[in-house]
Amino acid sequence: MKVPTRLTPPWRSPLRGPWLTSVFAVVLLIGIPILFLTGLVSYLAYNPDLSPVNDKTPEKGLLGFYLFAWPTDPYWLYRVTQGVHVTLGIVLVPVLLAKLWSVAPKLFVMPPVRSPGHALDRLSLLFLVGGGLFEFATGVLNVQLEYIFPGSFYPLHFYGAWVFIGAFVAHAALRLPRTVRALRGRDLRAELRTPVARTVPEPLDETGLVSRDPAPPTLSRRGALGMVGLGSLALLVVTAGQSIGGSLRGTALLAPHGREPGSGPNGFQINKGVTAVGIRARDIGPGWRLTVRGGGRETVLTRAELERLPRHVSALPIACVEGWSTSDQHWEGVRLTDLGALVGMGDAPPSVFVESVQSHGSFRSVALRDNQVRDPRSLLALRVNGAELSADHGYPARIIVPGAPGVMNTKWVRRLSFGESSWPV
């Protein structure tokens, strides 16, 4: 008679236990709130409460309680906050995966539901784990593949972030005392000095993370922490350069637009060119005109007439929601305040509605607040770095505003409407 083979128990790693899980948890406890706050800042920077064209999550309701006018100073603010948001999100991926690995026995416990209380706990874990994976996955995919969720990334990421952070805060509050006890129970420096040969499982406890039948160790906890740390460091090296710039830009191997795209005055990054948005040669050719409206008046200007208006220079970067940014470029053009004055707006024009000639794609029109319009560095740019704008960089004219996300710096502008009582959609 054949004796049935005994199944090997799963989750036998001798490394799993409350202490290792708590170490990963502390890193996430610091990093995830920063991710969430910089994500809120990213949404705020679009001035979504100003106009429907700026707001990609119009049903946000009370979730927009914190919105206020996005400032133009410091002019590098969005470059820093969005660079931190994207870079930190990518750097935390190995930590998140390691944390999920460390608690796998709890995620796949059988039977899955034992009582009403246990069912609620499992539901909270679904929101926590599912929300975390969703946010990280959609963020990384959007950065790497560019608009993989056309028209839906903003609401998906925005609402997903609120669901995730709610579950995260609740989970952290409930588990914090246990995390503190676990960290106090073992000395970090001692663990970092412990080789594989002396690695033993943590004592059995009520968490259920420690295996009752552990396998022989093939890696020390020092090795596990080092492997995760090196993974995060490697991702930092191949990502951060897209935001930092300078000599580090060449190391941004994971930045689709972050590396140097070429040389010359127009040799800096773009996120969309004329071909991608359906612009034809005649749309930006000699027949192009700029219409300026406001206060019941309208002025139509050729590019040659724009060139004859007083011109100014602003040194400003382009910073994209995907995390990449340029160094300061020297833009030359007409101040938005001067264009407002052409239609009687005076020295302090109100908000302006900007429309592009592009035929499709997101943000082909945007609304800019009065504080953005009135900043003397805000221009309708005609030239950059001493040369005429290239077609991909917005020829014949583009907006450049300090501190605004890249897509708010509209290219191929055809109309400026100052002080509209109701914004076009």
TrEMBL record:
One of its GO terms (molecular function) is oxidoreductase activity. It comes from the Bacteria. InterPro entries: Mopterin_OxRdtase_euk, OxRdtase_Mopterin-bd_dom, OxRdtase_Mopterin-bd_sf. The keyword Repeat does not apply. Residues 287-420 form the Oxidoreductase molybdopterin-binding domain. Keywords: Membrane, Transmembrane, Transmembrane helix. This is Membrane protein. It comes from Streptomyces scopuliridis RB72. The lineage of its organism: Bacteria, Bacillati, Actinomycetota, Actinomycetes, Kitasatosporales.
